[in-house]
């Protein structure tokens, strides 16, 4: 059986100049980054500001299994299908992180005949955006420690510095470290730690900023720590917002590539979907919507995490107007949500499937609560039986839920025609009234409770003593009017990853709050969400190599 990399290599890529010409871009609006990649200028948005935006389609999913359910594959395949039925289409995706690539989950470029290419370059260093964000984050860390060493004019309490260093790899050994050892000339000793790059607030800022000026202002608002009197210290207090903006100058430009079938794709930014909002950049999504009639984008993990944050945070900040949602489901994941064991998902089990559909039902309710129409995309696997397929189709018919079978992994755009045609009909027929679930004027606790009860199905929210104290402090600091970004496991609707399906009669515990003032939201931590993941016993990196001709090996 061919791997994704084998299929990607056989694709006939068009030179990036041809993709640029397809979008009618001027010569000064793009710059080549090799033969098949380009950076687009922000001038594109300025030139097309008054042009009507295309139809924005959001792709989300049910709660996934550890291997993922093919959400990116369906996103790419849908974009290709829309092009096949004559619609001018673009795709807007997140950039992959080396952590999952080298770890267990894999890349983020789709799969089979529904991929963005060149997949090996995109999954590795791409255009260097991740490294620029890593550098900016760690430059700020260096500036903070130098500020302490040079006299600490801002009065930072070394015990209350919250800014951590980052690395774009999974490295559990760096979660907690001590810096500044070695004597007076080596700095001020203090406890520190590392996050993965995609969990950096700078990543979230890059994806929510809408101009260089906006980027600079958001960077200035980053809270790096607190004084002894508990007042926050920001980047603006230190004076480094200009330097950080400069380091991000090129990373802020969206990246243009193509799918296997030549559909233009903007891949830009990739915030951690657990700890941040898990969506690609606003500027890439807006740029795509000005350059195409249909834009297909995705949000991280299931609708309880990715879609909720897209619709409550990203769409609100960017004043986006989504027209429809795709909810990706797989029979194997629904069987797992219905009680089937992980090693038996390839066996027919209608009973487990029927029970697991409850998980899909909850995500449908969530999307409906935002006032948006949807289609369920059943991402078909070769192990799915006709009896299982008929079971979910019958449930959808009984509950008047639109569903389309997709076979885009094996058939490319042709395997997504049914989904594409249903979406076009829905968008032409319906007039959605998208609205966020809560008002920004509501208290932080009320926003958290709205998400916990309406999206997760929790009975009530329990705030730890620390969280209660932080709610009071954040209100005093004037942060209560910000949206909330929930940090939660992706595997369950609850904060307990082992509770699959549609958990009922549970409480959600908020153990801690973290301010991301530059990004413009408050992070609410539930459960044990790690901001620096670890590697598995047998990382995917074990299978990676380079052949004698310099071609990548073992990338999925």
What does this structure look like?
The protein has 556 residues and is an alpha/beta fold. It has three domains: 4-127 and 251-429, 3-Layer(aba) Sandwich (Rossmann fold), CATH 3.40.50.300; 130-246, Domain 2, N(10)-formyltetrahydrofolate synthetase (2-Layer Sandwich); 444-526, Formyltetrahydrofolate synthetase, domain 3. The protein contains 20 helices and 25 strands. The strands form six sheets. Strands 1, 2, 3, 4, 5, 6, 14, 15, 16, 17, 18 and 19 form a twelve-stranded mixed β-sheet that branches. It has a four-stranded mixed β-sheet with strand order 20-22-23-21. A hairpin with a 5-residue loop joins strand 24 (545-546) and strand 25 (552-553). The longest helix has 21 residues, at 129-149. The radius of gyration is 23 Å and the shape is globular. The model has no long low-confidence stretch (mean pLDDT 94).
């Amino acid at each position: 059986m061919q791997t994704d990399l084998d299929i990607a290599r056989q694709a006939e890529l068009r030179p990036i100049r041809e993709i640029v010409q397809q979008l009618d871009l001027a010569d000064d609006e793009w710059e080549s980054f090799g033969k098949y990649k380009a950076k687009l200028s922000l001038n594109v948005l300025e030139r097309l500001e008054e042009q009507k935006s295309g139809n924005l389609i959001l792709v989300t999913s049910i709660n996934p299994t550890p291997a993922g359910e093919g959400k990116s594959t369906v996103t790419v395949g849908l974009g290709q299908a829309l092009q096949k039925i004559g619609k001018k289409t673009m795709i807007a995706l997140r950039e992959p992180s080396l952590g999952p690539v080298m770890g267990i989950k894999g890349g983020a470029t789709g799969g089979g005949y529904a991929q963005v290419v060149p997949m090996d370059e995109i999954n590795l260093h791409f255009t260097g955006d991740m490294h620029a964000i890593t550098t900016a984050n760690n430059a700020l860390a260096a500036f903070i420690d130098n500020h302490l060493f040079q006299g600490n004019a801002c009065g930072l309490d070394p015990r209350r510095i919250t800014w951590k260093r980052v690395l774009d790899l999974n490295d559990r050994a760096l979660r907690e470290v001590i810096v500044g050892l070695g004597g007076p000339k080596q700095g001020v000793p203090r406890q520190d730690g590392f996050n993965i790059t995609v969990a950096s607030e700078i990543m979230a800022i890059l994806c929510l900023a809408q101009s260089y000026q906006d980027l600079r202002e958001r960077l200035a608002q980053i809270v790096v720590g607190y004084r002894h009197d508990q007042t926050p210290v920001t980047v603006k207090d230190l004076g480094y917002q200009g330097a950080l903006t400069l380091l991000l100058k090129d990373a802020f430009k969206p990246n243009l590539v193509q799918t296997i079938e030549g559909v233009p794709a903007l891949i830009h930014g990739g915030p951690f979907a657990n700890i941040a909002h898990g969506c690609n950049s606003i500027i890439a999504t807006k740029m795509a919507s000005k350059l195409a009639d249909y834009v297909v984008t995705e949000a991280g993990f299931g609708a309880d995490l990715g879609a909720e944050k897209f619709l409550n945070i990203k769409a609100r900040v960017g004043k986006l107007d989504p027209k429809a949602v795709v909810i990706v489901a797989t029979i194997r994941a629904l069987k797992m949500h219905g009680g089937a064991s992980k090693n038996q998902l390839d066996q027919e089990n209608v009973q487990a499937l029927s029970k697991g559909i409850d998980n899909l039902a909850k995500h449908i309710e969530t999307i409906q609560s935002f006032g948006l129409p949807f289609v369920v995309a059943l991402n078909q696997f070769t192990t799915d039986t006709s009896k299982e397929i008929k079971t979910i189709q019958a449930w959808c018919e009984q509950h008047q839920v639109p569903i389309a079978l997709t076979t885009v992994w094996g058939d490319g755009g042709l395997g997504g025609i049914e989904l594409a045609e249903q979406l076009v009909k829905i968008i032409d027929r319906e007039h959605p009234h998208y609205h966020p679930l809560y008002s920004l004027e509501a208290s932080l606790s009320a926003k958290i409770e709205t998400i916990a009860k309406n999206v997760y199905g929790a009975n009530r929210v329990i705030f730890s003593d620390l969280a209660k104290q932080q709610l009071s402090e954040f209100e005093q600091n004037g942060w209560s009017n910000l949206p909330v970004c929930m940090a939660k496991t992706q595997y369950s609707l609850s904060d307990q990853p082992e509770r699959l399906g549609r958990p009922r009669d549970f409480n959600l515990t908020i153990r801690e709050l973290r301010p991301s003032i530059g990004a413009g939201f408050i992070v609410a931590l539930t459960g044990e969400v790690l901001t620096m993941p670890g590697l598995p016993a047998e990382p995917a990196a074990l299978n990676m190599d380079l052949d004698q001709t310099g071609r990548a090996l073992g990338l999925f």
